[in-house]
Amino acid sequence: MTRLFGTDGVRGRANDDLIPELALALGRAAAETLVPRGGKVIVGRDTRVSGPMLEGALAAGFAASGADVFLAGVIPTPAISFLIKDERADLGAVISASHNPPGDNGIKFFDRRGMKLSVEEEEAVETRLKRPSPPRGSVGWIGALDAAASRYAAFLTGTIESEEVDLAGHTIVVDCAYGATGAIAPRVLRHFNAEIIALHAEPEGERINQECGSTHLEPLRDAVLRHGAALGIAFDGDGDRVLLVASNGEVIDGDRMMGIAALHRHRRGLLDPPLVVATVMTNLGLERALAREGIELVRTAVGDRNVSQAMRDLRAKIGGEQSGHIVFSDHSPTGDGILTAVKLLEIAHERGRDLLDLASEIPLWPQVLRNVEAKNPAELLDAPSVRTAIETEQARLGERGRLLVRASGTQPLIRVMVEADETALCEQVAQAIVEAIRRAS
User: Fold this and answer.
1) Do 268 and 319 share a domain, yes or no?
2) Residue of 50, 81, 96, 98 marked active site
3) Are residues 19 and 49 in the same domain?
4) Which domain holds residue 379?
5) Are 118 and 218 found together in one domain?
6) 161 part of a folded domain
7) Among the three residues 359, 386, 401, which one is the final residue of a domain in this structure?
8) Domain assignment of residue 156, yes or no
């Protein structure tokens, strides 16, 4: 059996790679490994059509191992992190493929601290999956978790530390990607008296992430410009990431969101220790902007789990990914799109400046990203011709930039990132790498 867990849980095509039998077995293995007999597990999901099918199988696996299962229904992934702690549960699980297409799905687990499982814990679950133990005699209870969405919404509004954040007179467009934030994000944002225009907020799982949300910003940008909105907010299907569109249509990505938050806290004497945790993908422009004010940027491997773990080890207050997974560790140990939007609106209110103005303090270097489809990404990256091309292009960049080529942990893709002081150089280097990969495939 090859390793099931990728960078963000178990992912695959629903009813093809990820079948109910596997969900059942994962539930049993996870419960037997991580949950004491009679323990409590919370399960949530996004809106995908395959969600209820996999939810039933996963819950059955937990219950068959003696765990009581509380179903939170359709709810953002970070809500499970909150609810685990609120309910003092032993484990949480989310059925979602995040920003992936509707036909995909996934299962990711959270420990009793509300953090994603470590690699070691995932390996322990896989080991139990390969060598299942005899069935436990007792059967756990399965039922609904009361007021899960309302409790999570109350938590989000409660994270505001300013006396009053009043956005009356401001229009905000919110794109919920037909996903898990549709019933919660508009409600939370209306708490601040803004006029909220909701896009793609219907729970239509067959359309989740399709030409909308944080991976397709065009509809949101059009709506912001058409309505003269102050801001656009785009979530992905499970709500753990967010991107912003300013009033002029400019995108504010995760790097600049981290920069805005870190600079604000540092200037108020609240960034202790004075560091931000990000990944190898994060733009050099953020690193330089932080360094000018004495803030260190610590980089990890790609994956919000890696960021969260490093933040915990370093006691960092702010971290995240360029893609919009942002962690405010004072409030949550995992990336939370709605929480991030709320905290940035609070910062803009406190500073008396709009977010585009604040983002201008973090000038970014030109960066080009390319995705190349590959059946066996890791093997293809080991091809001599591909390795040679990477070495040649890195030498070409020299001190003018950097190159990162990696296999995706969630999709059959090779991801190419080039960053340099000129856009034309980024494009040339990226194209050379893409062509080398395609020739080798």
Assistant:
1) yes
2) 98
3) yes
4) 367-440
5) no
6) no
7) 359
8) no
Residues 361 and 409: beta-carbon distance below 8 Å: no
Token pair 């037909």: residue: 178
Same structural domain, 180 and 301: no
Q: Do 388 and 354 sit in the same domain of this protein? A: no
246 shares its domain with 262 = no
What gap in Å lies between CA 435 and CA 174, rounded to an integer? Answer: 38
- Determine the pLDDT at residue 113: 96
Which CATH number do you get for residue 116? 3.40.120.10
- Domain boundary residue, one of 97, 118, 147: 147
CATH number for position 395: 3.30.310.50
Choose the weakest-confidence range: 113-117, 142-146, 302-306, 309-313.
302-306
- The pTM score is 0.90
> Could you read off the pLDDT of 280-335 as tens digits, one per residue?
999 999 999 999 999 999 999 988 899 999 999 999 999 999 999 999 999 999 99
Distances from the Cα of 301 to the Cα of 16, 233, 277, 282, angstroms: 29, 27, 11, 11
Average pLDDT over residues 98-102: 94
Task: Assign residue 47 a region (left: φ > 0; alpha: ψ between -120 and 50; beta: otherwise).
Answer: alpha
Mean pLDDT of the chain: 94
Tokens encoding 233: 């907010």
Number of other residues whose CB lies within 10 A of the CB of residue 2: 4
As to burial, measured by CB atoms within 10 angstroms (0-12 exposed, 13-18 middle, 19+ buried), residue 13 is: middle
pLDDT value at position 348?
Answer: 95
Q: Is residue 137 part of a domain?
A: yes
> In the annotation, is 247 catalytic?
no
**Section 374-392 average pLDDT:** 91
Give the total number of structural domains in the chain: 4
**262: which residues sit within 8 A by CB, 6+ positions away?**
271, 276, 290, 295, 318
Q: Is the pLDDT of residue 176 over 70?
A: yes
Statement to judge: residues 262 and 241 lie in one domain: no
Of 180, 145, 175, 150, which is closest to residue 74 (Cα–Cα)?
180
Read off the pLDDT of each residue in 369-373 and give the average, rounded to a whole number.
92
5 part of a folded domain = no
119 shares a domain with 63? yes
